[in-house]
Amino acid sequence: MQTRSYATAILKEGRPKGLEDLVTARLERQQILQREEPTGLWLVLHERVLRNVVGSEEIMREQLLRLLHIAETSTHRVQIIRDEGRYRGPVGAAPFVLMSFEEGADVVHVDGFPRGYVLAEQDEVADAEDAYDLLRALAMPLEESAELINSVLKECYS
């Protein structure tokens, strides 16, 4: 769900070869959300993601506007886990995506270095589903999450 500027700033930190190709590939994956019948998306993010300046304040403003738009789209869900001064979430967990398909078994894509990987074993998928359910339970409700995104946008990036 990253904007071009945000994705460039994030990926640039690793000083990769072929930065533009990596950014383009990342953005092309978002096309499934633009279909006539878009894929549903449910994001759970930590509040720090909203406040950690990536690139510049203008890049963050653009990124938060994008995230707010997603949060306000009926086919998508965005929940924020509040920063209450203590760590919440699986220890050592890398960002991951649960993917469900009309046909075939669910899988998990895990972000990793130098590239992500897919888990398809049912036990691993079940563990990821359990971890994701816990994260959703710890997160704020949808409306409050959108309000927090808007509040941080106004407070920090207006």
Report the end-to-end length measured between terminal Cα atoms: 21 Å
Low-confidence sequence ranges: none
**Mean pLDDT over the full residue set:** 90
Q: Give the helix level as a range of percent.
A: 40-55%
Main sheet strand line-up: 3-4-5
Radius of gyration: 16 Å
Order of helices and strands: HHEHHEEEEHH
Q: Report on the biggest sheet.
A: 3 strands, antiparallel
Number of DSSP helical runs:
6
Number of strands: 5
Question: Any idea what the shape is?
Answer: globular
Alpha-beta content class: alpha+beta
Question: In percent terms, what proportion of residues is strand?
Answer: 5-15%
What descriptive keywords fit this protein?
6 helices, three-stranded antiparallel sheet, globular, 5 strands, alpha+beta, 46% helix, 158 residues
What does this structure look like?
A hairpin with a 7-residue loop joins strand 3 and strand 4 (107-110). The protein is of the alpha+beta class. A 3-stranded antiparallel sheet has the order 3-4-5, covered by helices on one side. Strands 1-2 form a two-stranded parallel ribbon. Helix 1 crosses helix 2 and helix 4 runs antiparallel to helix 6 (142-157). It has helices at residues 4-12, 19-28, 47-51, 57-71, 122-138, 142-157, and strands at residues 41-46, 76-81, 96-99, 107-110, 117-119.
